[in-house]
């Protein structure tokens, strides 16, 4: 069976070797027909702690690594949106 691959945004990188990735999908409401967004968070393995919050990454399903981690980060799709801040000296 092929491994599932999802694309999402890193929302937390505070734990060691783990990132939390939020994956959003759009579904049609069964009664009203409006398109609504649903999201789910996945804990993914990040061996070198290289991915930071705000980055869009691709994750792949893998064997269970812990109670919550059954995904691993493959690569970065886009970097995070960081703004430069000028300091008054």
Structure write-up:
This protein has strands at 5-12, 18-28, 35-45, 56-61, 71-78. By secondary structure, it is an all-beta fold. The chain has one domain: OB fold (Dihydrolipoamide Acetyltransferase, E2P). Strand 2 and strand 3 (35-45) form a beta hairpin. The relative contact order is 0.27. The model has no long low-confidence stretch (mean pLDDT 91).
Essential attributes:
single chain; 89 residues; mainly beta; OB fold (Dihydrolipoamide Acetyltransferase, E2P); five-stranded mixed barrel; 5 strands; 0% helix; globular
Secondary-structure blueprint:
Layout: E1 5-12, E2 18-28, E3 35-45, E4 56-61, E5 71-78
Major sheet characteristics: 5 strands, mixed, barrel
Identify the strand order in the major beta sheet: 1-2-3-5-4
What is the number of E strands? 5
CATH superfamily: Nucleic acid-binding proteins
What's the overall geometry?
A: globular
CATH class: Mainly Beta
Work out the oligomeric state of the chains in this entry: single chain
Mean pLDDT: 91
The first-to-last residue Cα distance is 59 Å
Radius of gyration from the alpha-carbon trace, in angstroms:
16 Å
Strand content: over 45%
Mind telling me which CATH architecture this is?
A: Beta Barrel
The SS-based structural class is mainly beta
Give the total of domains: 1
Task: Assign the CATH topology.
Answer: OB fold (Dihydrolipoamide Acetyltransferase, E2P)
């Amino acid at each position: 069976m092929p491994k599932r691959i999802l694309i999402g945004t890193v929302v937390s990188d505070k734990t060691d070797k783990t990132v939390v990735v939020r994956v959003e999908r759009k579904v049609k409401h069964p009664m009203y027909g409006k398109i609504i967004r649903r999201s789910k968070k996945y804990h993914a393995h990040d061996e070198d702690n290289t991915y930071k919050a705000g980055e869009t990454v691709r994750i792949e399903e893998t064997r269970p690594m812990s109670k919550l981690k059954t995904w691993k980060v493959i690569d970065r799709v886009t970097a995070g949106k960081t703004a430069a801040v000028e300091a008054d000296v």
